[in-house]
Design brief:
Elements: H1 14-31, E1 38-50, E2 61-72, E3 75-87, H2 88-93, H3 96-101, E4 108-115, E5 122-127, H4 134-139, E6 175-180, E7 190-198, E8 203-212, E9 218-230, H5 235-239, E10 247-259, E11 263-272, E12 281-291, E13 294-302, E14 325-339, E15 342-356, E16 364-378, E17 381-395, E18 408-418, E19 423-433, E20 443-454, E21 459-470, E22 473-488, E23 492-503
Parallel strand pairs: 1-23
Antiparallel strand pairs: 1-2, 2-3, 3-4, 4-5, 5-6, 6-7, 7-8, 8-9, 9-10, 10-11, 11-12, 12-13, 13-14, 14-15, 15-16, 16-17, 17-18, 18-19, 19-20, 20-21, 21-22, 22-23
Length: about 500
């Protein structure tokens, strides 16, 4: 794939035409104050030209995104559009500007207004907004299986967290969101109220409060409720006699944390209305304790209502997907050593997972994942070594070859060096996939990446190589190279990116 610069135009959709007068009047209103409320204008551009492997028979294609952001002290306006991966023949046969613009996805708009920021901050955001944190857990509480053995942060992120669209964000339903967070001075605690309503008639509201006992000790709690539209997107449910009709369903989430220097606990619990006789309940506990150079992280997730739900559908989540993980536990001890200006961090993580297969009949499989890593830092130099063994089948009989966990082990090495003029980073990894069955072959993947950043020139370059082997023979190869440029002035910012990905 080759990515090069070009010029894309915003398609003036009906939504875009309606927003133009609104943006213009906003400009006029801010300028009438006679104050310097304008912060900066930012233009972003990215495009990609794909040159596929000749033997695949695929056509060359073009893809890209572009957008503009106008930032004020009390407002933020954004507009982006994307050309999805489109073959050259489609582009060349499109006659006239209207046909060419029809190749673009609908534009993504967003407008944010920030009121009473000093005493009673109120943020209003209208557009194709995205939501994360508590809303993400409401939509899909399935726990992650990443299990980083050198995890450093232990955050408690709550709320709807409405965000205006970005260059790389996917187009979301048009929504109106608000966030109200009074200043702490009039109150002994800090609280926040957030919510949204979108064009698909989904809605959610989140309330959170933080009670500080000291600078290092506090408790925080949050409650969220939502009305989400859930569809039947799984053919496996029908095969297991668990099909249902799409409809609106309610969900609720309670979150609590206690943070102190010696012990940190994050607790999450939720209930999701489902189309069956039982409304599944789930909970998750994350913990961390530290003593001198020893750090211990632990986590546990469970769906106690699994036995009462259909075997193939322990829980239908607010994102219309099936939560197949019914129980998961992990532990992560770490050791940190200081040697003058140098430091060495060692970590080990073990994760056990019980998961329902997407087969007919559905069965539960118990798998494990282990990771060991070390990280060395000395001034501006750092290096890391990481070994992983994953998807080890501990218990259960897969009903089909497709349900057999894809076991693998990998070894990766990375290093970085920062100087006054340039920052370098280099990484490489090797992954081995043993044969799943007697008829399958061993699979091996080799990858290497290099990155060079020149802060004084606002330039960043990167290149990478990825090779895939099966039974000792190379099956595919991919070379990637790219460069990005970032311009920052008092009232103007710009980000341009070019990339080459070539298959061989």
């Amino acid at each position: 794939m080759i990515e090069k610069c070009g010029i894309f135009l915003f398609p003036l959709t009906p939504t875009g035409r309606r927003l133009i007068p609104f943006i213009f009047l906003s400009f006029l209103g801010f300028n009438l104050h006679g104050e310097e409320t304008f912060r900066f204008a930012e233009y972003k551009f990215s495009s990609a030209l794909t040159l596929p492997k000749t033997s695949t028979g695929k056509e060359d294609s073009l893809a890209g995104s572009t957008g503009l952001r106008l930032s004020f002290n009390d407002a933020d306006f954004r507009a982006f559009t994307t050309l999805p991966k489109t073959s050259f023949s489609q582009i060349s046969t499109a006659n006239g500007i209207h046909e060419k613009l029809s190749l673009f996805d609908e534009a993504r708009f967003g407008a944010g207004i920030f009121l009473f920021q000093k005493d009673f901050p109120l943020n209003l955001k209208v557009g194709h907004n995205t939501f994360s944190k508590s809303i993400s857990r409401l939509r899909n509480p399935s726990p992650s299986v990443t299990a980083n053995p050198l995890t450093k942060s232990f955050a408690f992120s709550i709320g709807a967290s409405p965000a205006l669209p970005t260059l790389n964000s996917s187009r979301q339903p048009l929504s109106c969101a608000f966030s109200l967070s009074p200043a702490e001075k009039p109150f002994k605690f800090h609280f926040c109220l957030e919510g949204f309503f979108n064009e698909e008639k989904e809605s959610a509201v989140c309330f959170s409060a933080k009670f500080p006992f000291s600078k290092a000790v506090f408790v925080q709690s949050a409650f969220c409720a939502a009305r989400l539209y859930i569809e039947n997107n799984s053919s496996i449910l029908e095969k297991n006699n668990a099909a249902f009709n799409p409809d609106f369903f309610y969900s609720a989430l309670y979150e609590f944390c206690f943070h102190s220097p010696l012990l940190k606990i994050n607790f999450y619990s939720g209930i999701q209305e489902n189309p069956y006789d039982v409304n599944p309940f789930w909970f998750k506990v994350d913990g961390r304790t530290a003593f001198k150079s020893i750090l211990l992280n632990f986590s546990y997730f469970a769906l106690p209502t699994t036995k009462d739900s259909p075997k193939a559908a322990p829980m239908i989540t607010g994102s219309s997907s099936v939560c197949r993980t019914v129980e998961q536990a992990s532990i992560n001890p770490q050791l940190l050593f200081f040697m003058g200006e140098s430091s060495l961090r060692l970590g080990f993580s073990a994760l056990e997972n019980w998961k329902v297969t997407a087969t007919s009949p559905a069965v539960q499989l118990n798998t494990a994942k282990f990771r060991v890593a070390s990280e060395y830092k000395n001034g501006n130099f750092s290096s890391r070594l990481d070994w992983t063994r994953a998807n080890l089948l501990i218990k259960g009989n897969p009903p089909a070859s497709s349900a057999i966990p894809e076991e693998y082990q990998s070894l990766s090495v990375s290093g970085s060096l920062a100087t006054q003029k340039a920052n370098f980073s280099l990484s490489g990894s090797y992954t081995n996939y043993p044969p799943k069955t007697e008829k399958s072959s061993i699979k091996e993947v080799l990858s290497m990446d290099f990155k060079l950043a020149l802060p004084q020139c606002s330039l960043t370059g990167n290149c990478g190589l990825k090779l895939t082997y099966k039974a000792g023979s190379r099956q595919s190869g991919e070379f990637e190279a790219g460069v990005s440029y970032f311009l920052s002035r008092k009232y103007l910012r710009s980000s341009l990116k070019a990339e080459l990905i070539l298959a061989f």
